[in-house]
Specification:
D-Maltodextrin-Binding Protein, domain 2; 16 helices; alpha/beta; 11 strands
Length: 348
């Protein structure tokens, strides 16, 4: 009887241990721009790897940065923009990626890795997720017979109440800086003051300052013209085939958004598994079909319809890229200067 009781007790202990193990499932905590990858990929990743993916989102890098800087929440893998990655590398907030765990890095085109060296000089910390340009999306029926080819068209009084601008320090200042012929990385206070004055002059004409909702407002014809990313073009075109996208003649911002791993990541290998998963060609193609942002995954590009691949609004030409600038981190003094004139612009 005693042996039987001991046997039953051993079985119960085994069941309890196994139950405890099942409750400690592997996890990865992801922090990304909102709606920046196909949500179906979460379930696919979990099924393939057994790793639970928990996702939080942000609207701008400026919103994300203090969360990671102050370790307000524990994230493993995040997807910031170029200039913010540069800043986070300089402040020792990122971990070097173990590329032995990311063999699908071979699918990322060399020219995109070269672009990334602008902010990650040795390609140690980041893996490109998307790239593209800022530009103007407009509805020809709503702007009349106007030729839209310049950032100055966003100051046209005839379009008052029909204009959308980005609600983001660097992206908004970029427009004014390009009109004035200045670098979008200027830290000259006089130039920033002039850019702020130009944006203040425009304010009465602007319908809304927005981020992700720009595409829906333009597609629904709530606005006629606005600043948007080229990756939104196909999405908008499906909803409203009248819309056109142009890169203004003054030049624009070229961006690379990339996956990086935080220095405080508690699940670093799981973060690398996520990055490797996102670099697989079929996954990158599925994500492009959902997101329609230019993919740096050349293996996935080979799977994309040739008509789309040759559409300059979706995949900008080398000539367009040559007329672009990449945002750079400006250092504490430069960032403070932009903050100062952003507050001036917002306060007027």
């Amino acid at each position: 009887m005693k042996k039987k009781l001991l046997s039953i007790l051993a079985v119960l202990i085994t069941v309890m241990v196994l139950a405890g193990c099942s409750g400690s499932k592997e996890k990865v905590y992801i922090y990304s721009y909102g709606d920046y990858f196909d949500p179906d990929l979460i379930e696919q990743f979990e099924e393939e790897t057994g790793i639970e993916a928990i996702v939080d989102t942000y609207d701008t890098c400026e919103e994300m940065y203090p969360v990671v800087k102050n370790n307000s929440a524990s994230y493993d893998v995040i997807c910031p923009s170029d200039y913010m990655i540069e800043r986070m590398i300089e402040e020792d907030l990122l971990a070097e990626i173990n590329f032995d765990n990311v063999p699908n890095i071979v699918n990322i085109g060399e020219k995109y890795l070269e672009m990334s060296r602008e902010f990650d000089p040795e390609n140690k910390y980041s893996v490109p997720h998307t790239y593209g340009t800022a530009g103007i999306l407009y509805n020809p029926d709503m702007v009349g017979d106007k030729v839209i080819d310049s950032w100055t068209d966003l100051w046209d009084e005839d379009l008052s109440g029909e204009i959308l601008m980005q609600d983001s320090i660097r992206d908004t200042f970029m427009v004014a800086e390009k009109i004035l012929g200045y670098s979008l990385n200027t830290v000259n206070e006089q130039e920033l003051s002039e850019a702020a004055d130009l944006l203040i002059e425009q304010k009465p004409l602007v319908y809304k300052y927005v981020n992700d909702s720009a595409r829906d407002l333009l597609s629904s014809e709530a606005a006629a013209i606005g600043v948007i990313w080229n990756g939104e073009y196909l999405y908008c075109k499906e909803l409203n085939d009248k819309l056109k996208f142009i890169v203004p003649k003054e030049g624009t911002q070229f961006f690379v958004d990339s996956w990086v791993i935080t220095k405080t990541a508690e699940n670093k290998e799981n973060a690398e598994a996520w990055i490797n998963f996102m670099c697989r060609e079929d996954i990158a193609k599925q994500n492009f079909d959902y997101l329609t942002y230019s993919t740096p995954n050349i293996a996935a590009q080979a799977l994309i319809d040739e008509e789309i691949l040759n559409d300059e609004s979706v995949f900008p030409t080398d000539e367009t890229i040559d007329n672009c600038e990449v945002l750079k981190d400006l250092g504490p003094e430069g960032n403070e200067l932009y903050s100062k004139y952003w507050k001036k612009f917002k306060g007027e």
